[in-house]
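Below sits the subject:
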Amino acid sequence: MKMSTAISSVGDLLAALVRIPSVNPEGDPGTAAENCGEQRVAEFVGNYLQELGAAVRYEEVEPGRPNVIAAFPGGDGKPAVLLGPHLDTVGVGGMSIAPFGGERRDGRIYGRGACDTKGTMAAMLWALRGLGTERIAALDIGVTFVGFMGEETGQPGSRHFAKKPFCEKPPGRIRLRPNRRADQLRHRPQTQGHALAGNHSAGSSRARLDPGARR
């Protein structure tokens, strides 16, 4: 059975992602070396997207630490949108729960990255699964997913990606960021666009739907 059909809910998908350790190895990861780096989670995500019909490739930015890039068919010549979560998590030192357990309790999923940003990533992957390849190809935009390595320390993954041509026009980027208000268990969208003026790029739009929304 395909992985994309064996996983029956977005919660199951998130739990599976949490159970794949991808701690950023820089600084103090607070865990053994085998739990560091993005290789395993990149391969999991890449296999999932490949089953959905995307053309997947890996670009190794540092040894054992790739970006995973998945382009869906039908995007040639269209404006592009980039779904861009990151693969790595912060360290796990001092955690009082199993960092890679993916435990489900009282309607929540616990573990490192469950919010930042494997929750985001699971939501994006599940939305792509729901749309399906044919509907994605029929959109007025091209859709590409990039899972970035190294976001927690200096963003070498996104810097590496930005150096290479992606499409004829700079893409819009959609990220989802956690809303940390205790009474709002949700992610808020952040859209990013780029405008060129005198060889300088700038521009970002951050949703603020309520006064308590914080990054």
About this structure: The helical segments are 3-6, 10-18, 39-51, 118-137, 156-162. Confidence is low (pLDDT under 50) at residues 181-215.
